[in-house]
Q: What sequence folds into this?
């Protein structure tokens, strides 16, 4: 309200306030046309022209996804994705630079398309909303600045297209800035933009914790410089005891294999100091302590200090690990989780409000049971099979069969295994798997007869079961009727067989209500974490592109090698994913810090013609990536998972509706919903209310007036239309609703 009032005052007092480029008025037809193009978007809901009420549509999630962005933003999203895919083919290998954009016309085409499309997009937005100092200006926040920066660097690079790119030159810096193109998606997709905003809102607290850890590192680094500065180096020639004499070459005994092959008993080796971390000055000491903060190499540093300075000097490393790693990093995790809770608003909720919020999340996971009604007494066979399939013993028996079926993969299923001593064991396991597959087929037949085919296929779990069972029967025919007699395609049938066994194991979660609820919790966590994972992937893509330019041709070393390198963006993504898991990221960093005289460097050569790394660039690159991804983004994922699993493991006594109440509602709804559609006519609501038990129970005798009022309320809300299960359950527990039981309304007071 305040913002709108200020905008109206500015429009009245300053006639050029809402004029893009000080030319187009608010009522200008051309400007309205540009606004129509910029803001046109898909409408997910349709209204009935007669009643004016929204029409229920299938695949609501898909329609909501289409309406997430405007048509213009969707076009730019796909063009940006195509451009990012094109950048994945840019690599400094081979050495002639033929796969770099300045030497490849195909890659230049996608670059031209991206720049042209972005030029048209920004021109339309400027004409519609203005560039500066308008209510919806293009540059009104950091997202607008990032968009303009990406556009300007792309235009300059496309016009310039330098053929020579020397190391540490302006052209190389421009190529690194061009690598920020995946971050353009941050400003296009609102959900990803919201993730970044949530992270930035807690920037102050995260910065304070970071400063605290840096001060802690500085204190220990200063102490380490005083006690270990210049004292940890040791020549690889054990006869040399001083740093000044550690030059030249020496003869070293070399024997690295036990094979009976001729070898040289000695080898000429250069005298060098190991590249282990050191405390020679404050910079190296801070870098070493940051590596220790990630639980990397701290035992190596401790052992080196013990060897050079004694046991007492290594106590400081243990103290630093305890304070910095076990307390400081835990504080970091707590700050990120607390900021996430505050940004979502859950941290400020009272106990009763939190219960209500948990209840809404539980109701999102509640699904109709999709159990067909009981057959009539006249259909004795169907009735017998219905009671059999609904019995607890029947369900437990087939749950045990699924577990037993999964245990059959104890030994490899392959034709090579038939040549070993476990041949008979393999045949027995495969035969037992075929028997279990026939039992699963029998289970499906029983359920189809008991529920009828239409009733059986109403459940997603039954659909998955019949698909897996059909594949299992096909495997039995292929393996026992074709492969074994002909002694052909055994490897293929073995592979097909164990894939079906693995797929069968995943159905165990749907056979138990608690496991099913846990699986739904995991799926909900994955869905809510999807945009965070996407934001993390886009950030990794930016670092991968930059890593190819900075370290694409670095000489192989201890960690950088044939399997871990930055030769291509795909290899760089693999290395960065490895760094996300914390696997030897510091070793990769040290290899990328390689400099003269340990590599070939020429100031006039292109960056792809030298095998040197970038000393300071590697420190900034790897430390910033590890800090952002490991300490911030991954902790945000932890916060989301903790929130969802705290809902699953919450106390039943504290909940407004327990899982037993929700289960009772599902069973009652299944009785009333004869067509098993998930919707019932409003006329059946009174029967539903009479059958409910537990906290949702309404006594028609004691609460006669409340019962009538609830039926009238549902009739008024839906006007004789059908009512969905989730909508009714939410309305029944809404505190301010007339349908809510007194317990829910009292809880929110």
A:
């Amino acid at each position: 309200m305040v913002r709108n009032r200020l905008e109206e005052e500015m429009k009245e007092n300053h006639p050029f306030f809402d004029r893009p480029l000080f030319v187009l008025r608010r009522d200008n037809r051309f400007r309205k046309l540009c606004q129509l193009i910029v803001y046109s978007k898909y409408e997910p809901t349709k209204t009935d022209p007669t009643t004016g009420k929204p029409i229920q549509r299938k695949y609501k999630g898909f329609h909501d996804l289409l309406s997430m962005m405007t048509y213009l933003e969707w076009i730019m999203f796909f063009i940006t994705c195509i451009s990012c895919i094109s950048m994945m083919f840019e690599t400094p290998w081979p050495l002639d630079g033929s796969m770099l954009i300045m030497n490849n016309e195909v890659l230049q085409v996608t670059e031209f398309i991206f720049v042209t499309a972005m030029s048209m997009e920004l021109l339309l937005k400027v004409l519609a909303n203005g560039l500066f100092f308008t209510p919806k200006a293009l540059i009104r926040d950091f997202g607008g600045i990032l968009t303009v920066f990406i556009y300007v660097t792309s235009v300059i690079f496309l016009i310039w297209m330098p053929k020579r790119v020397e190391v540490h030159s302006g052209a190389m810096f421009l190529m690194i800035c061009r690598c920020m193109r995946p971050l353009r998606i941050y400003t296009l997709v609102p959900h990803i933009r919201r993730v970044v905003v949530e992270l930035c809102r807690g920037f102050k607290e995260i910065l304070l914790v970071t400063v605290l850890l840096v001060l802690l590192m500085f204190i220990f680094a200063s102490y380490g410089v005083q006690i270990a500065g210049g004292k940890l180096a040791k020549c690889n020639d054990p006869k040399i005891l001083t740093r000044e004499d550690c030059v030249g070459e020496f003869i070293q005994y070399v024997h690295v294999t036990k094979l009976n092959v001729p070898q040289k008993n000695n080898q000429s080796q250069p005298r060098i100091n190991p590249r282990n971390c050191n405390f020679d000055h404050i910079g190296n000491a801070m870098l070493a302590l940051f590596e220790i903060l990630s639980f990397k190499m701290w035992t190596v540093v401790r052992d080196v200090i013990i060897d050079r300075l004694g046991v007492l000097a290594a106590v400081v490393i243990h103290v630093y690990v305890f304070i910095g790693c076990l307390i400081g990093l835990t504080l970091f995790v707590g700050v990120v989780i607390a900021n996430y809770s505050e940004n979502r608003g859950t941290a400020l909720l009272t106990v009763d409000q939190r219960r209500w919020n948990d209840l809404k999340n539980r109701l999102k996971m509640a699904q109709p049971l999709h159990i067909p009604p009981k057959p009539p007494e006249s259909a004795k066979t169907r009735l017998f099979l219905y009671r059999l399939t609904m019995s607890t013993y029947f369900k437990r028996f087939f749950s045990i069969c699924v577990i037993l079926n999964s245990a059959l993969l104890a030994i490899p299923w392959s034709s090579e295994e038939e040549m070993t001593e476990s041949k008979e064991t393999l045949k027995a396991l495969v035969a037992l798997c075929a028997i279990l597959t026939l039992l699963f087929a029998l289970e499906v037949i029983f359920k189809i007869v008991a529920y009828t085919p239409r009733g059986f296929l109403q459940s997603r779990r039954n659909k998955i079961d019949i698909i897996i069972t059909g594949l299992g029967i096909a495997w039995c025919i292929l393996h026992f009727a074709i492969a074994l007699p002909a002694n052909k395609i055994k490897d293929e049938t073995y592979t097909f067989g164990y894939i079906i066994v693995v797929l069968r194991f995943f159905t165990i979660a749907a056979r138990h209500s608690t496991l099913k609820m846990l699986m739904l919790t995991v799926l909900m966590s994955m869905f809510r974490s999807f945009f965070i994972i996407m934001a993390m992937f886009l950030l990794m893509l930016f670092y991968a592109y930059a890593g190819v330019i900075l370290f694409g041709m670095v000489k192989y070393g201890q960690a950088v090698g044939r399997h871990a390198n930055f030769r291509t963006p795909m290899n760089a993504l693999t290395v960065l994913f490895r760094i996300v898991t914390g696997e030897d990221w510091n070793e990769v960093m040290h290899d990328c810090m390689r400099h003269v005289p340990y590599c070939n460097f020429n100031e006039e050569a292109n960056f792809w013609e030298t095998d040197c790394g970038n000393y300071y660039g590697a420190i900034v690159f790897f430390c910033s990536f590890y800090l952002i991804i490991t300490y911030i983004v991954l902790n945000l994922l932890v916060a989301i998972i903790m929130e969802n699993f705290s809902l699953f493991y919450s106390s039943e006594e504290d909940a407004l509706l327990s899982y037993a109440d929700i289960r009772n509602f599902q069973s009652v709804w299944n009785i009333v919903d004869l067509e098993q559609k998930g919707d019932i006519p409003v006329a059946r609501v009174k029967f539903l209310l009479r059958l409910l038990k537990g906290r949702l129970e309404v006594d028609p005798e004691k609460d006669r007036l409340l019962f009538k009022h609830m039926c009238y309320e549902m009739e008024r809300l839906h006007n004789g239309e059908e009512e969905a299960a989730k909508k009714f359950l939410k309305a029944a527990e809404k505190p301010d609703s007339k349908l809510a039981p007194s317990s829910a309304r009292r809880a929110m007071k």
Summary: The CA atoms of residues 531 and 554 lie 34 Å apart. The chain has a mean pLDDT of 82. The chain has five domains: 2-39+70-188, 192-234+276-348, 380-511, 526-648, 659-747. Residues 615-648 form the longest helix (34 residues).
